[in-house]
Design goal:
With 607 residues, the chain is an alpha/beta fold. The chain is 34% helix and 22% strand. The protein has 19 helices and 26 strands. The strands form 5 sheets. Strands 3-2-4-1-10-9-11-14 form an 8-stranded antiparallel sheet, covered by helices on one side. Bound molecules: 5-amino-5-deoxy-1-O-phosphono-D-mannitol. 5-amino-5-deoxy-1-O-phosphono-D-mannitol binds next to helix 9 and helix 17.
Length: 607
């Protein structure tokens, strides 16, 4: 978990590195640092805290350098201190290393290197890499890095520079992303594309085990044995504007508003509303293979897992296929029952979440076919899956997932149509497809109510607890609503299947406790009304989300927000939007750091 950047060219390196790090801060932001080589040698500046601390420390120093590397950190090994911040030097101060990932055998390597006379300054796993380069260095930086690699276990994206190699950077990748940006007489390295966008849209996406050697002659990509590889240029189709705030105060709000577009893009060209048929390019299950599926196992974390819970309700109902719901961090250790008849449904915005990837590998080991839904082209999940359905949400920068969730849920419906048709059991397909095709405009209708959510958030913001109730699909969305609120507003929020209230959670309801009740499932309205009465009788303040025309709920709740009517199985695509806006405005009212909540990072690439 961290972001790394590198630059070699004709520009001043420091502003390029800092701008790149700013765009990667979503990957971690508890400390940052850069290393550059200028006429007087290799210089490292680093600081605990946000990038602003590093900028203050730099204050115009190092401005002459045209080569450097940088890092923004999310601590795993060692606290977020100045010393533990990257880049890390070797004993002699000739080399500097930045790293994203975890070196699993670092203790062993550290002991061995200490016995060899190396002195360690930090508590990090990364520092062993700097000493290893020093150990293997015989005058050739690339060779030293190559010699080190067989001794390193774990995940890494690494960039290395050396004082005696003022025009070289060596980057390596294994299980953590690393991208080379191709400019005119300049080359970039970065953990993710937004860091490169101000300069280039042409990239090489490194595969596991590949080494990027950057020099004034241009980048060379080598395999682990040093052989030159021919890489295809990946041209980024979205632009800088898409990776910036576009006039909104926060990325999260911008991303919430991008949802109609994201949904349209995800459905476009894939859905035929007239026939109910779908065309999903990267999904290649034949009708025989689709019919052979006996169960589906979800493999996902956090918000992505709640999108998967929608699959549980929808697929079980429409496809009559059992869908096992579990978070990946649990699944991987519980000796799951899977075989060739299992479809592993992997959902991940980033495609790099460590637990999700481990779950994917375990499912594959057991014989499952892997079908992935991801937002990042070329991500590890995409590359390791048998079938891939990309969500076209575009880059999601805010830590709190919004448009990625919505497009993941849309993917769940597209896949229901695909599997249902392939299995020859989809009399419902045309109706579902027709209604699915109009959901983007329904999301627009909800967004038009934005001011209402700001007012309602003011009602929730002073409290320390909130509850989200729902049944069936509404419960799946309640889980996502509660996660949104807790992660960005630091308010304790709990989702509860409404029928479970009286088995415990009801004890927590007191005068004024905010309760958000989702009442979109036609056959469960009566049951939900009883649950609203139960919490009201204990003093709760109830905000209900119901479909237009549901007058009964108005008599029970303190406030009702009406959502446009739509197919009862598609309601999550619309009902989640008010919950995102409520979370956003509550966090803003509480003065929280909306886009970068404390203790969290966008992409959880460690277990
Ligand atoms: O990149 P992924 O979809 O695999 O990430 C999974 C979770 O870490 C992520 O959904 C997380 O729960 C979100 N920050 C919640 O908003």
């Amino acid at each position: 978990m961290c972001g790394i950047v590198g630059y070699l060219g004709h520009r001043q390196a420091v502003p390029v590195l800092l701008q790149g790090l700013e765009r990667l801060e979503y990957r971690g932001y508890d400390s940052a640092g850069i290393a550059v080589i200028d006429s007087s040698g290799l210089k490292i500046t680093k600081s605990a805290g946000r990038l602003t601390e590093l900028k203050a420390r730099l204050n115009g120093h190092l401005d002459g350098a045209t080569l450097g590397i940088g890092h923004t950190r999310w601590a795993t090994h060692g606290r977020p201190t100045d010393t533990n911040a990257h880049p890390h030097p070797d004993c002699s101060g000739r080399f500097a290393v930045v790293h994203n990932g975890i070196i699993e055998n670092y203790q062993e390597l550290r002991q061995w290197l200490k016995a060899e006379g190396h002195t360690f300054l930090s508590e990090t796993d990364t520092e062993v890499l700097a000493h290893l380069v020093e150990h293997y260095y015989r005058g050739d930086l690339l060779q030293a890095v190559m010699a080190m690699l067989p001794h390193v276990k774990g995940s890494y994206a690494v960039a290395v520079i050396g004082k005696d190699h003022p025009r070289e950077i060596v980057g390596v990748r294994y299980d953590s992303p690393l991208i080379v940006g191709l400019g005119r007489e300049e080359t970039f390295l970065a953990s993710d594309i937004p860091a490169l966008l101000p300069y280039t849209k042409n990239t090489y996406i490194l595969d596991n085990g590949e080494v990027a050697y950057l020099s004034p002659e241009g980048p060379r990509i080598l395999d682990g044995t040093g052989h030159l590889k021919q890489k295809q240029v990946f041209h980024v189709s979205w632009d800088l504007e898409a990776a910036e705030k576009g006039g909104y105060p926060h990325f999260m709000l911008k991303e919430i508003h991008e949802q109609p577009r994201a949904l349209r893009d995800t459905l476009a060209g894939r859905l035929d509303p007239a026939s109910g048929r779908v065309k999903l390019d990267g999904v290649r299950l034949t009708p025989e293979e689709a019919k052979a599926i006996r169960k589906v196992a979800l493999i996902a974390c956090g918000t992505a897992s709640y999108a998967g819970m929608v699959a549980k309700y929808v697929w079980e109902k429409l496809l009559r296929l059992p869908v096992e719901f579990d978070v990946a961090s649990e699944l991987r250790y519980r000796q799951p029952l899977m075989d060739e008849g299992t479809l592993g449904l992997v959902i991940s915005q980033s495609g790099e979440t460590a637990d999700t990837l481990a779950g994917l590998r375990e499912a594959r080991r057991l014989g499952a076919r892997i079908l992935a839904v991801t937002n990042v082209v070329g991500s590890s999940v995409a590359r390791e899956a048998d079938d891939v359905l990309y969500t076209w949400a575009g880059p999601e920068i805010a830590v709190a997932s919004t448009k990625a969730y919505l497009t993941q849920v849309a993917a769940v419906y597209l896949l229901a149509l695909y599997l249902g048709t392939a299995r020859g059991e989809a009399p419902w397909a045309a109706e579902l497809a027709r209604e699915l095709s109009v959901t983007p405009s329904k999301v627009e209708e909800v967004l038009a109510l934005e001011d209402r959510f700001r007012e309602l958030a003011a009602r929730i913001a002073p409290h320390e607890h909130a509850f989200f109730l729902g049944r069936g699909l509404d419960y799946a969305v309640a889980l996502e609503g509660a996660l949104k609120l807790k992660e960005i507003s630091y308010l304790h929020a709990e989702a509860c299947p409404a029928g479970e209230l009286k088995h415990g959670p009801l004890a927590l309801i007191e005068d004024g406790t905010p309760v958000v009740a989702l009442v979109t499932q036609e056959e469960l309205v009566e049951k939900m009304l009883s649950n609203i009465r139960e919490v009201k009788a204990r003093g709760a303040w109830v905000l209900a989300l119901a479909l237009e025309g549901n007058r009964a709920v108005a008599a029970e709740a303190d406030c009702v927000l009406y959502l446009p009517r739509l197919h009862n199985l598609l309601t999550p695509l619309v009902s989640v939007v008010p919950l995102q806006l409520l979370a956003y405005y509550t966090a803003a009212a509480r003065g929280c750091s909306v886009d970068k909540p404390r203790n969290l990072a966008k992409s959880v690439t460690v277990e």
